[in-house]
Amino acid sequence: MGRLGGVGALGKVVVLWAAVGVLLAGPARAIDRGGIPAEHQRPLLTAAEEQAWLAQQLQASPHYQMWLQRPPEAPLPPAQPVKQAGASPAIAVPLAPPSAFPAPKAKRVYGYLPYWTKKTAIIPWGTVTQVSWFSAGIGESGAITSLANWNTADSKAFIQLAHSKGAQVTLTFTQFSTAAISKILATPDSRKTAVDNIVATVIAGGGDGCNIDFEGMAKADRDKMNAFTQLLTETFAQKLPGADVTLATPAVDWSDAWDYQFLAEHSDGLMIMAYAMHWGGSNPGPQLPMKADKPWTHKTLQWIVNDYLTWGKASNKGKFIVGLPLYGMTWPSASAQPGAAKLANAKSVFFSAAQDLAAKSGGWLWDAASESPYLAVNQAGTWMQTWCDNLKSFENRLNYLGQQDLPMGLWALGYSDGDPAVAAAIETWQNSGAVVPADPGPEPGPEPKPDAGAAELAEPQPDAGATPDSGAPADGAQPADLGAVSDLSPAVDSQPAADAAVAKDADTIWFYDDADPAGDAAAKDAPASLDAAPLDGAKPAASDGAAGGADAAAQDLAAGAEVDPLADQSVATDPGPGGGSAVNAAAVKPAGGCQAAAAVPQGWWTLLVAASLVWRRRRSR
Question: By C-alpha distance, which of 58, 47, 23, 46 is closest to 576?
Answer without folding.
Answer: 58
